[in-house]
Amino acid sequence: MSLTLATLVTDQFRLTPPQRDALKRLNIKTIEDLLYHFPSRYGDTAEARTIESLQKGDTTVIFGKISGLKTSKGFHSKIAMAEGYVEDETGRIQCVWFNQPYVAKMFSDGMLVRIEGKVSARQRKKLGAPLPSPTLENPVAEEVAEDTRDAKLYFSNPKIETVNRLPIGVGDSLFGSKEEEHTLYPVYPESRGISSAWIYHTIQKLFKQGLLDELVEPIPEDILTKYHLPGLKTALIWIHAPKKREDALSARKRFSFEEIFTIQLGKQQARREYEKYPTFKIETSDAHVHEFIRRFPFKATSAQVRAVETILADMRGNRAMSRLLEGDVGSGKTAVAAATAYSVMTTRPTIVDTDGKPVPGSDGRRIGNLQIAYMCPTEILATQHFESFIQFFSYMPVQIGLITGSGCRKFPSKINPKGWTDISRSQLLTWVKSGEIAVLIGTHALIQKSVTFKNLAYAIIDEQHRFGTTQRGALVRKNGLGGHTAPHLLSMTATPIPRTLALTMYGDLDLTLLDEIPAGRKPIITELVLPDGRAQVYEKLRSELHTGRQVYIICPRIDEPDPDKEAALIAKSVKEEAKRLKRSVFPEYEIGILHSKMKPAEKDAIMAQFKAGKIHILCATSVVEVGVNVPNATSIIIEGAERFGLSQLHQLRGRVMRSTHQAYCYVFTESTSGKSIDRLRALQNAKNGFELAELDLAARGAGELSGAKQWGVSDVAMEALQNLKMVEAARTEAARIISTDPSLTSYPELKKEVELRATKLHFE
Ligand code: ADP
Ligand code: MG
Fold first, then answer.
1. Distance from the Cα of residue 297 to its chain's centroid
2. Is residue 125 scored above 70 in pLDDT?
3. 634-596-604-459 Cα dihedral, nearest 10 degrees
4. Which range has the worst mean pLDDT, 29-43, 145-159, 490-504?
5. Ligand 2 centroid from CA 279, angstroms
6. If pLDDT is split at 50, 70 and 90, which confidence band does 626 have?
7. Nearest CA owner, ligand 1 atom 4
8. Closest Cα partner for 555 from 596, 584, 494?
9. Contacts of residue 152, Cβ cutoff 8 Å, sequence gap at least 6
10. Which of 663, 645, 668, 384 is nearest to 554 (CA)?
């Protein structure tokens, strides 16, 4: 059978069962997977000492061949242990692993290994001599095997890893003496059962069998040259067997560029696809929208005005808008949505093709009202937006609908022109279809099949990271107007993600930043509270409550702790904590609870009471995270903060940044780990969500890039996200290629890669 990238590793090599399991855990099936399984770091044999030069107390590294591996039990203690000998050309030394008998199984005699640890000395037993006292390195000192063949020095519990070669002059090097300069060896991400050396040798075998000649370079030559990136074959050799550290680095750079570049290509292709369709030309003036903005009960920030004007400029063009509005919590995105929706609902436009020519039969009078859809991730939020839209638009003759899983509403009500009324779903859908309802606000219910619009000209998605591409696609394809007419799309998010990540994952959207917090708001005071500070915080809260403010208390769990579990390990629960606070801390105040297991009607009732000030303290899970707006609530306690992500904590904190009163956020943690306290401190010091996101990114070292899995990008690509220049280069080059060759006809290899990549991403 001929060897290709698609060949299964199991078909090509004889594997032991532990090796098979290990490959499975590493998700390596094909030869290609193996080739793209990159080392997590490189060791250097230049750091080695010779065995004969070792002295008691040295903490050091040696390389050698291992032999005599066996498991044994401590004579008195019965502690299971592994032992063996490592030898180089200058001598040999014993190694002992207490409590780790499996070491003897993971390695086998004859393997080349690297040993790192502290050199101990065994006291030779003399008859009647007292036993040495146990130490950390040697918890059962008296149990060390009584082998006196060589020196009394030994390594106790050293780190051990396989290597593919030994330093020159030590043992028989794999490469012999030809390659004196070459001292680096790859260390692959660990998985028990498979050694780094095995992976190294296997990949070298594949190279020798000519696998590299099969590969076709997907990145255009001119781009490689321009950015000094190594070609595919060179990069693969360099990443698995670098002669110099710089080579390994440039190989990694090439692979991260490639990944970001192909993500960008896919995103920009999708965008171009969307822009092919005719859209609604919204001919409206800035002066017109300013009349509306002047009606706001507050003065719009200049960031809000800029965002509105940018959006309207897009809508005046001949192509459907695709824009992402990123603004910290409380930056006032809803008002931007309302002002731009106002411009849409008050225009009688035409549908134009991409050259700006009106589509026949689509002149203003005939198509009538333009419609707006506003999709939110939760019912609470949808209801809240419905209410704010009523406030924004109640002076105009405009109909607004609300659709959620638990029912439908319409504004205005026939009986009460100032208020809304409940209506049936089928009635609402009829009016949406006929175009009478100008604005439809809702949850996912909005994208059900049965919902169709007459002229959906503007689709707004709030907290867009809560939705996937499919849901976004479903929303913009809601037009009943025959064929495809693409509405303008505004996605909004408060998720503070680093700029590089936004440019990559939202490569199909233009970005507008709402980077200004409305005037008059005082910056929030965030305090990290350790367990002994609890009582003091409660007293501060009491005085806030006393002046009429309200409080959120966020707990990680809903229910009472399971009594079987260790109490200290259990995070506070909403129900239990509410009871405790009522009983022994705030008996004089009304305490409500809110969590995701409650029925929508119950949740609404609680929110209504909290808004009305009847509930003073709301004890909730992170369901309040998204967009809930109660300006009088100015303090928030977050219990068990170490259990939340930084960006989630920031979103939670946003709940109390909604008014001109001083806001407080108390971050409670039981954790004593320096790392998690440092992480929480970033929350205390960062000025806004974007700064926080950059801090978070900078703090993550390679190898600890946990977000990668969540977003569906590799560790290598996560490294690129620390490099704004590279991300911008990838975006520019992708745009250039897509603008001349949108379907990548002249780049078949790239095309394949782009399609493959699209199936891997999950971040939206
Ligand atoms: P977010 O960007 O988090 O969605 P919202 O749109 O919910 O923020 O606005 C948060 C609060 O700020 C609301 O109460 C809103 O009325 C108010 N607001 C919005 N813009 C301004 C402004 N320019 N000045 C003062 N308050 C504003
Ligand atoms: Mg919002």
1. 37
2. no
3. 90
4. 145-159
5. 26
6. low
7. 333
8. 596
9. 121, 122, 123, 124
10. 668
Q: What is the pLDDT of residues 102-123, one digit of tens each?
A: 888 888 899 889 898 889 987 6
Could you tell me if 157 and 167 are in contact, meaning their C-beta atoms sit under 8 angstroms apart? Answer: no
pLDDT digits (tens, 9 = 90+) for 339-378: 999 999 998 777 777 787 777 666 555 556 899 999 999 8
> Could you identify the residue written with the tokens 């030309």?
281
- Measured in whole angstroms, how far is the alpha carbon of residue 341 from the centre of its chain? 31
* Residues 57 and 202: beta-carbon distance below 8 Å: no
Pocket test for ligand 1, best of 463, 658, 659 (most atoms within 8 A of CB): 658
State the distance from the centre of ligand 2 to the C-alpha of 262, rounded, in angstroms.
32
Calpha distance 56→70 (Å, rounded): 24
Rounded distance between C-alpha atoms, residue 168 and residue 342, angstroms: 76
Closest ligand to residue 334's CA: 1
**What is d(CA 83, CA 12) in angstroms, rounded to the nearest whole number?**
34
* DSSP, residue by residue, 336-351: HHHHHHHHHHT---EE
Distance CA 328, CA 659 (A): 15
Q: What is the pLDDT of residues 539-577, one digit of tens each?
A: 999 999 999 999 999 998 887 655 555 444 567 889 999
Label the pairing between strands 591-594 and 617-620. parallel
Q: What is the pTM of this model?
A: 0.71
Tell whether the torsion through CA atoms of 180, 183, 188 and 192 is positive or negative. positive
Ligand 2 mean position, distance from CA 210 (Å) = 56
Report pLDDT for 178.
Answer: 46
The DSSP secondary-structure symbol of 414 reads S
For residue 78, what are the contacts with CB-CB under 8 A and spacing of at least 6? none
Is residue 105 within 8 Å of residue 93, measured between CB atoms?
no
pLDDT, one tens digit per residue, over 239-285 is 999 999 999 999 999 999 999 999 999 999 988 888 888 898 898 88
Q: Which ligand is nearest to the CA of 328?
A: 1
Q: Taking CB atoms and a 6 Å cutoff, what residues make up the pocket around ligand 1? A: 298-301, 304, 327, 329-335, 494, 518, 627, 629, 631, 658
Nearest to 338 by CA among 380, 278, 298: 298
**End-to-end CA, the chain:** 42
Neighbours of 562 (CB within 10 A): 10
pLDDT score at 230: 97
Testing ligand 1's pocket by substitution, the residue of 334, 376, 462 carrying the most ligand atoms inside 8 A of its CB is 334
Amino acid in position 89 = E
Task: Specify the range with the lowest mean pLDDT, choosing from 36-40, 716-720, 735-739.
Answer: 716-720
- Expressed in angstroms and rounded, the spacing between residue 492 Cα and the centre of ligand 1 is 14
C-alpha 577/C-alpha 584 separation (Å) is 10
